[in-house]
TrEMBL record:
This is 5-demethoxyubiquinone hydroxylase, mitochondrial. One of its GO terms (molecular function) is 3-demethoxyubiquinone 3-hydroxylase (NADH) activity. Keywords: Iron, Membrane, Metal-binding, Mitochondrion, Mitochondrion inner membrane, Monooxygenase, Oxidoreductase, Ubiquinone biosynthesis. It is found in: Mitochondrion inner membrane. The gene is COQ7. It is a peripheral membrane protein. Binds 2 iron ions per subunit. The keyword Metal-binding applies. Pathway: Cofactor biosynthesis; ubiquinone biosynthesis. GO terms for biological process: determination of adult lifespan; regulation of gene expression; regulation of reactive oxygen species metabolic process; ubiquinone biosynthetic process. Its main location: mitochondrion. It comes from the Eukaryota.
Length: 261
């Protein structure tokens, strides 16, 4: 227990008067009965204030340790390459991680929509395999959001619905429609990842080495999904060129918005 002497005495004193309860594993001061007498009331109030301030401080630091967030009193090291929270290009990193997290979230919803329609068909296992990889991408960007302390885009609820509708809607056109959607989306994401790689290399390839490795790996897997789509007759979808161009225009708009809000 991280108590000073006065804290221990405060606990004992307050417990004897029935003013301390246990809630959710923590001491919480909740008077069970009215405390009368001017001197006693003043003493208890003083102890309560001191205890509350102590626990606020402990919870701030303890909570940050529990969730692997940086200490409030020391520079935070983002990764093993020596990058710290203070010496990264915050605007660039914020935009990259925010939009990539949104993109992987949207991709997950697209595959969820496709599986809802085609999950029991012959192409279901193919979609499932690609979706499993996208789940891994999203998990990683969830971790990077915490690591670099980046807020998500406020548009996630919209991408949740739009992604599922896009996946399910194209799947209703058949296997070819779903694969055309995959080709269009994965081509857009791969192109976007390439732009980010160039940006980070221009910034400092050594400083952002670990982030670059993540983006390069995911870029390669997105291109694999693109090729899988072509191998499964994406180009035979009705109005393939029109469908592909329309989806990619939507992807560009989603990227633009998710980077900024």
């Amino acid at each position: 227990m991280l108590y000073n002497g006065w804290e221990r005495e405060a606990d004992i004193h307050l417990s004897r008067m029935g003013a301390v309860e246990q809630a959710d594993g923590c001491d919480v001061i909740r008077p069970r009965q009215a405390l009368v007498g001017g001197r006693m009331a003043a003493e208890v109030v003083g102890l309560q204030l001191r205890r509350a301030e102590c626990w606020r401080s402990l919870c701030r630091e303890g909570g940050r340790r529990r969730w692997h967030l940086p200490s409030l009193h020391s520079p935070y090291r983002c990764c093993s390459t020596g990058t710290t929270y203070e010496n990264i290009n915050r605007p660039v990193i914020d935009r990259i991680i925010r939009v990539d997290h949104a993109g992987e979230y949207g991709a997950n919803r697209i595959y969820a929509g496709q599986m809802a329609v085609l999950g029991r068909t012959s192409v279901g296992p193919v979609i499932r395999k690609m979706w499993d990889q996208e789940k891994g991408h999203l998990k990683k960007f969830n971790e990077l959001m915490v690591l670099y302390r980046v807020r998500p885009t406020i548009l996630l609820p919209f991408w949740n619905i739009a992604g599922f509708m896009l996946g399910a809607g194209t799947a209703l056109l058949g296997k070819e429609g779903a694969m055309a959607c995959t080709v269009a989306v994965e081509e857009s994401i791969s192109h976007h990842y390439n732009n980010q790689i160039r940006t980070l290399v221009e910034e400092d390839p050594e400083k952002y080495r670990e982030l670059l490795e993540v983006i390069k790996k995911f870029r390669d897997e997105e291109m694999e999904h693109h090729d899988i789509g072509l191998d499964h007759d994406a180009e035979l979808a009705p109005a393939y060129s029109i469908l592909k161009n329309a989806i990619q225009m939507g992807c560009k708009a989603a990227i633009f918005l998710s980077e900024r809000i």
